[in-house]
Amino acid sequence: MEEANLTRFQPASFHLTGFPGLEPFHAWISIPFCALYFTSILGNCTILLIVAQDRRLHEPMYFFLCMLSLNDLGVSLSTLPTVLAIFCFGLRDVAFDACLAQMFFIHSFSFMESGILLAMSFDRFVAICKPLRYSSTLTNPRIARIGLAIVLKSTVMLFPFPFLIKRLPICQSNVLSHAYCLHPDMMRLACADITVNNIYGFFVVLFTYGLDSTFIIVSYILILKAVLNIASREQRRKALNTCVSHICAVLTFYVPIIAVSMLHRFGKNAPHVVHIMMSNVYLFVPPLLNPIIYSVKTKEIRKGILRILA
């Protein structure tokens, strides 16, 4: 009997809204979204192709860059089915279990990106602060283990999320605020106590974004201290220049997250469309900008692009 009640209070599907009130313009909105997806996927695939083809780039820095590109592809492909279904075909309903799966992958890839950026900051720390130990510290097997640890950490941390949602009776509505499924959006539809979801969600965010960003800041404090001890101005400039791309990637990832958090906390009176736009920026901007940043700021990647275009 209890099982039957639980099933009755779980909708067969969720209704995704996209941009409420702008339904007549969805055909036009689909154009920038399609361009965004095309550019993101093309840019990240280009980075992977360049590194795979040039054996001179088979170094720790570029292996971590490939991890970032693979992860950005994962973020784009996680949101792509429902976003394009809404804006291109007007299909708004997604099955309950499919929504849970999308939620899991979106959050997992987001947390993995934080871990990869931390690993990249460690790479820069070793390269600048302990250059003589760089090759012996960041060996290929160790890089592989770091990548595996990032995937396992994110997967294990996110594994309870679908079950935490599935235990809740969804009896208020089945309408979600975005064009994709997110944990905070789904748990707000429950007509039961969501304290466990809130506490565990806060713990996961603190344990991933909080710790990772703290260690990234500490690594750059140590890097800056080491750079300031270099006598030559030209060598200081070269050392810092190797970090510019990573610093831009970190800002591209964390600034939207902080902005979304601040908006949810202090901007409750802001128009609903502003909340939706910021959530889209948080998910779509890093996969778009990361390949551009590394293409502009990394000479080897620029040369690889020119070879492909030649």
TrEMBL record:
GO biological process: cellular response to lipid
Membrane topology value: Multi-pass membrane protein
GO molecular function annotations of the record: G protein-coupled receptor activity; olfactory receptor activity
Main localization, broad class: membrane
Pfam families cross-referenced by the UniProt entry: 7tm_4
TM helices/strands, residue ranges: 25-50, 62-92, 104-122, 143-165, 199-223, 244-264, 276-296
Lineage: superkingdom: Eukaryota
Keyword Transmembrane tagged: yes
Alphabetical UniProt keywords: Cell membrane, G-protein coupled receptor, Membrane, Olfaction, Receptor, Sensory transduction, Transducer, Transmembrane, Transmembrane helix
Compartments, as annotated in UniProt: Cell membrane; Membrane
GO CC annotation, single: plasma membrane
Family indicated by similarity: Belongs to the G-protein coupled receptor 1 family.
Entry protein name: Olfactory receptor
Gene symbol of the encoding locus: LOC129325882
